[in-house]
Known about the structure:
By secondary structure, the protein is mostly helical. It is built from 18 helices and two strands. It has one domain. α3 (70-78) packs antiparallel against α13 (371-391), α5 (123-146) packs antiparallel against α18 (487-519) and α8 runs parallel beside α13.
Amino acid sequence: MELNSIRALEQASNLGRGELFRLGTAMLFIVAIMLIVSARLESVADSYLLVVAAMIGGYMAMNIGANDVANNVGPAVGSQALTLTGAILIAAVFEAGGALIAGGDVVSTIKKGIIDPALISDSTTFIWVMMAALLAAAIWLNVATAVGAPVSTTHSIVGGVLGAGIAAAGWEIANWSQVGMIAASWVISPVLGGVIAASFLYMIKRTIVYRKDKVAAAKRMVPFFVAIMTWAFSTYLILKGLKKLWKFDFITASLIGLAIAAMMYLLVKPLVRRASGALVNNRDSVNALFTLPLIFAAALLSFAHGANDVANAVGPLAAINDAILNGGVSSKAGIPVWVMMVGAVGIALGLALYGPKLIRTVGSEITELDKMRAYCVAMAAAITVIIASQLGLPVSSTHIAVGGIFGVGFLREFLEANHARTLDEIREHHVDDAPEVVDAFLETFDSADVTEKGYMLAELKKKNGPHIFKKDRKELRKMYHKELVKRSMLLKIAAAWVITVPLAGFLAALLYFTIRGMLLPQ
């Protein structure tokens, strides 16, 4: 008994030391920002405000790394295409690379145009608004990460800017039509991501998994799926990840992506043919062919995320920097290198310290992912953003990725329930036959490809078997409904999405009045 107590105490102390190390490292980062920025801005008026804003920006960047980056690498980790350590290293390098290489040198000070900066008369009030918005968004992301809920960092900062802006200048400052579009994305993003991910999974099942010779089908189809992924990610990267370096319209980006995809198809086809020679004819063996595409997908998604979403951390900070140095409020602000470094290093550090919790949530706690399913989620992430950007729809990368995971999970539930009902109906048609006859038919049915199964079922229905009434079919559906998606996770994540903007807004308004009260001359 005493030995068990000592072991439990050791485990608790190890857990405490790990948490203390993470907290200490995070605090060192914030203190380093304070010291470096203070040394750079000794002669600048109100430099203390910029130092505080830089510390809040670093805190926000770490929370983006801890929460948002999980969507890029979580499916690859959940499917075991990447280890947790490998995923963190890849994501950290490519997130920071995307921020520093393609993050741009100018950022919009008012994210998504949700408030009118012209109604904020002086730069001091504007600084307070941005500081409150940034801190509110960071605190909410911290809370969401702690409870294991992947939420949109863009929506968090939008809610913060909206709440602080209303607190500073009243309700008329808000662009309510834009806010309505953002609210619509709560539904648009996950539904579109889920439908696209489920469609790709069904396509893979029809063309590979449901075939009798799965290896031959994989030789033919995997290069095609890799080419589609190459096109989607090339186009996505050109339109979104590199947009601050080069401007391309959709047609040009698509054609460039198509050319890269064609080259990738020619390169991958002989490689898949060679790799297929050692495979056995089952689903697990073929599943391994999707490993390498998933690793590249995680890297490219991280690069594009770093290039785009670093603005969520450094945008308000860049706005504060511009307002202090130039003494005015502008719609665009330059991003100094030190500001971009705060965002890039903060995202990478937050991912390394606190990212594993959300990576596990996204990768394995919603539904079971293998490499084929994770491939479909990655495809949904890229294609949904491409479609939405062309239609002018506001979407969230977090909502898309999580929606894609739910999409493949619900499709699996439907297909498994449908398969179970089919087997039950086959047994009903063979109710008067000997058990060995039924078993032989079921064995033949299971090994047949999708076309042969359809033919066998059609022939079976021509025979005079017992009629299954509508009421009985409903009972069968209930009997064979196997939940492959955790409903508790669905409810928790949906609730976190819905409250993100209003909660961040309320918190930002509260922080604005607090900051204003402390900094107004007495």
